[in-house]
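Weekly puzzle thread! Below is a chain. First person to post its structure in C-alpha cell form gets bragging rights.
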Amino acid sequence: MPLTPLVYWAQRHEEVYLRIELTDARNISIHVHENVLHFAAQGNGAKGQNEYEFNLAFLLPVKTKVSHKSTQRQVNITVKKEQWGWWERLTLQERRPVFLSPDFDRWLEESDAEMEIREKEERKNRLKAARRKEEEGFISLKTGYLFVYNLVQFLGYSWMFINMTVRLVIFGKDSFYDTFHTMSDVMYFCQALSFVEILNVALGIVHSPIGPTVGQVLGRNFFLFIIFGSLEQMHRQPVVFFVFYLWSFIELVRYPFYMLGCINVDWKPLTWLRYSIWIPLYPLGVLSELAGVIQSIPIFDETRLFSIPLPEAIGTSLSFSCLLYPYVAVMFVGLYFNMRHLYKQRQKRLSTKKRKAN
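Winning reply:
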C-alpha cells in the first residue's frame, strides 16, 4: 500500500513551497485538480523504499501549472497562488494533516515576507538603475561618435563645395580643369573615411540596409581611386568637376540630417531636402560617372594600366577596359536599386509625417 511521505511547507505572497522528504525519487507524478494537489512517487522515505503519495486541498485557489525539482535527497514543489496574498494556513481543513509541518528553513512571517519583497524590489531597482546608466553611457558614446563622424564629413564636403563654387564664379570654365589637383586630397580623405559607414551598419551601430551602403561606398571609391586617381590624363578632365560637385552637393544635405538625428532634432526643411534632393542629383551623378568611365576606356587601352596578363600561348593581355563595360551595366542596375530604396525611404518618412500632421 502507498505510504505518506513527510511534507514541509512555507509560503510567500505569490507562491507556496512544498518540500517532500523522499530520496532517490522516481516515477514522480504531480498535478493539481479542483484545487487539490496530487503527488505520487517511488523512493526512499520515512518508511524505507516504497511508493509514497498524498493529497492536499489548498485553502485558496491556486494555478494548475506546478513546477518541481527532484534532487537526490528531496522533491521541491512550487505552486503559484491565483491571487496575491497571505494565507492563514495551507489546507482547506482547519486541522493540519499529521504528515505536514512548517519548513523552518524557508519559513517567514507575513511582515518578514513583505520586507523580503521590498528588499527584492530595491535590488531590482538598483540593477535597473545601473543598467540604465550603462545604456545611457553607451548611447552617449555612440551618439558622440556618430555626431563627430558626420560633422567631419560635413566639414570636408562643405569645404569642397564652397571652394568649387567660388572658383567657378571667379575663373568660370577654367576652374573645371584643375578641380582634381585642388580637391583630390580632401575627397580622398572623405571617401576613404566613408568605409566607416559599412562598419557602422555591420556592427549594428547604425540601423540601415547594408546593401545600398556597401554599393555607394565601394562604387565611389572605385571611381575616385581607379578611374580618376590612377589615370593622370583624367585629372584635367571637366567631368571631374561635375562628379565632385554633385557628390558634395548631396552630402551637404545628408550629413547635417544625420547630425541632427544624433541629437533627436527634426528640422522639417532639411528632412524634406534629405528625402527629395536625390531625385535630380542622384541620376545626374551617375550620368557624370558614366561619362568619366567612357572617357577612361581609351586611356586604359592605350596605357595598358591594370591589364590582366594572359597565358603565353595567347601572347597578349586583357585590357582593364574590358571590365569597365560590364561595370557600366552594374552602374545602371545599381542606379535602379538605389533609386528604389531611396524612393521607399521617402514614401515611408514623408508619408508618415503627412499622416501625423492630419
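Puzzle host: Confirmed. Bonus trivia for everyone else. The CA atoms of residues 36 and 57 lie 4 Å apart.
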